[in-house]
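> example.struct
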């Protein structure tokens, strides 16, 4: 099968933000081509200590994504350009140009999986299906996640920030709502931590299979984690189906601009005293999100950081 391959030219410093924006509109499995040197963690995950010399970093990154020629590529590219224009307001993304070519790689969506290896988020082991658990890890919490078409393997800083907050706040009585659930990783971890139930919402239909597979891999009962596809921000049917004043914890690992619209809506789904865990916030957008949270009547109880990303945890009065 032939695919349309699109290459977006940006700055290497902005690639994480641009990829997050692409994921938000449904583009997954982005390939990164840059000249940034590998970090110590990168080398650990690739099980190598010495690498050949690489070209000097020129600060440029090329992000490759693929679209089915049978789909409406024109509309999707219009959405991409709109996202890029919005990003330019608060971050230098470089040229932001997009070129197109054609590929006949039949399994492009799976090829990058060979680069995903097991890793830890504190005392939680996250491991793909093709690797074995080491004897020293058998007593740890183990999460089975395979990279796929829905966002969320736990490798990204924003997800790790949420995981650490869940470890602090989840109890055996917790009913969780996860907005933008992606692979379902946060809901599954909450349930493994002892939560009573989880509901996830997402815009991307790819989430359906991803959540199903990850629930099965982690032996999550069918009725413990329910998924709903739709936009909870402006769809009253989804809001009603999710339910009002039902949730002890709401997680939202999504872009800051979406949090601005989501926050005044989602407070109605939360119980009094409920905890709101947000992430996906670039540090330059922190103050805007803080204001939105406070304007919605929530009290900020904690702010945590990892790299350039921020997580804000708040409580409903």
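> example.seq
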């Amino acid at each position: 099968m032939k695919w349309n391959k699109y290459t977006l030219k940006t700055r290497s410093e902005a690639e994480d933000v641009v990829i997050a924006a692409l994921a938000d509109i449904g583009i997954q499995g982005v390939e990164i081509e840059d000249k940034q040197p590998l970090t110590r963690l990168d080398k650990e995950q690739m099980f190598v200590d010495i690498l050949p010399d690489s070209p000097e970093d020129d600060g440029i990154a090329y992000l490759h994504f693929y679209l089915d020629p049978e789909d409406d590529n024109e509309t999707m590219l219009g959405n991409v350009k709109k996202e890029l224009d919005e990003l330019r307001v608060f971050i230098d993304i470089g040229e932001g140009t997009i070129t197109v070519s054609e590929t006949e790689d039949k399994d492009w969506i799976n090829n990058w999986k060979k680069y995903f290896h097991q890793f830890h988020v504190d005392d939680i082991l996250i491991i793909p299906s093709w690797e074995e658990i080491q004897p020293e890890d058998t007593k740890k919490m183990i999460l089975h996640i395979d990279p796929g078409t829905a966002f969320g393997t736990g490798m990204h800083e924003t997800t790790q920030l949420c995981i650490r907050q869940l470890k602090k706040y989840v109890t055996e009585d917790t009913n969780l709502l996860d907005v933008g659930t992606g692979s379902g990783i946060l809901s599954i971890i909450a349930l493994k931590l002892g939560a009573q139930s989880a509901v996830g919402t997402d815009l991307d239909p790819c989430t359906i299979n991803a959540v199903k597979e990850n629930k099965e891999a982690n032996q999550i009962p069918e009725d413990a984690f329910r998924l709903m596809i739709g936009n909870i921000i402006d769809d009253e049917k989804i809001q009603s189906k999710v339910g009002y004043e039902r949730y002890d914890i709401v997680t939202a690992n999504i872009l800051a601009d979406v949090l601005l619209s989501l926050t005044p809506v989602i407070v109605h789904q939360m119980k009094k005293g409920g905890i709101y865990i947000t992430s996906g916030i670039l540090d330059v957008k922190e103050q805007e999100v803080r204001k939105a949270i406070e304007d919605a009547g929530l009290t900020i109880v904690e702010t945590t950081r990892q790299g350039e990303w921020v997580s804000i945890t708040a409580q409903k009065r």
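> remarks
The chain has ten helices and 14 strands.
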